[in-house]
Automatic annotation (TrEMBL):
The chain crosses the membrane at residues 32-58. Keywords: Coiled coil, Disulfide bond, Lectin, Membrane, Transmembrane, Transmembrane helix. It comes from the Eukaryota. This is C-type lectin domain family 17, member A-like. The lineage of its organism: Eukaryota, Metazoa, Chordata, Craniata, Vertebrata.
């Protein structure tokens, strides 16, 4: 066992003073401590270098704080500009979609295309004059029926009685459309026009009768009926 410990000690002579040879021991110790000092100096240099690098990095970060803040402001400004552009494009796309929808029929919203005209079927009832005024305010007029198909179309979409643009108010018995044209086609119900209403006097305005699709009757103009507007 002593031999073993002896071998171990001889393999690790860290600044150890061999007693047997004092001069050699002094020389050895000088080299040993010189190595330790060099090692300590190198360690100090490394630590100092680390501190310098750290301070440089930290110093750069501190110096860059205003730039980072500026960058944040720039990003926010850029994002706001992008959002504004997107909103603008969304509005434009919505407008184009509405124009496209309208363009498909060529008629305003709530108006219906048939042939070359657009038609508005009212929900409310008015006297004949007020109904015409309503249509004219929308660059239209009460419907002028020019064909059998048009008469069928406007009659099919309303079960109620509706005013059409027909009147003989200017000259009794001479029926005219609101565009000044005379009748070329007539769809009077049998026995009409009779210009007679026991209660209200003359009947000078034309309408399509409820219960008799496509058949016309003359009625006093001061009756509240639904109505149909037409425009090109
Ligand atoms: Ca027409
Ligand atoms: Ca009449
Ligand atoms: Ca009548």
């Amino acid at each position: 066992m002593e031999a073993v410990y002896g071998n171990v000690k001889s393999k690790n002579p860290v600044c150890q003073l061999p007693v047997s040879n004092p001069p050699a021991s002094i020389k050895f110790n000088r080299r040993c401590y010189l190595s330790v000092i060099i090692f300590m100096v190198m360690l100090s240099v490394l630590l100092l270098a680390g501190l310098i690098v750290f301070s440089l990095f930290y110093g750069d970060s501190v110096r860059n704080l205003p730039e980072i803040s500026d960058s944040k402001d720039n990003v926010t400004e850029h994002l706001n500009a992008v959002i504004e552009r997107l909103n603008s494009r969304l509005t434009e796309a919505t407008k184009k979609l509405m124009e496209f929808k309208q363009g498909k029929t060529g008629c305003p919203a709530e108006w219906i295309r048939f042939g070359s005209s657009c038609y508005f079927f009212s929900g409310e009832s008015k006297f004949w004059d007020a109904a015409r005024k309503f249509c004219r305010a929308r660059e239209a007029d009460l419907v002028v029926i020019n064909s059998n198909d048009e008469n069928t179309f406007v009659s099919a979409l309303k079960k109620e009685s509706v005013w059409i643009g027909l009147s003989d108010e200017a000259s009794e018995g001479t029926w005219k459309w609101v565009d000044g044209s005379s009748l070329t086609l007539e769809f009077w119900r049998h026995g009409q026009p009779d210009n007679h209403d026991d209660r209200y006097g003359e009947e000078n305005c034309g309408h399509i009768r409820n219960g008799f699709p496509g058949q016309w009757n003359d009625l006093t103009c001061y009756t509240s009926l639904q109505f149909i507007c037409e425009k090109d």
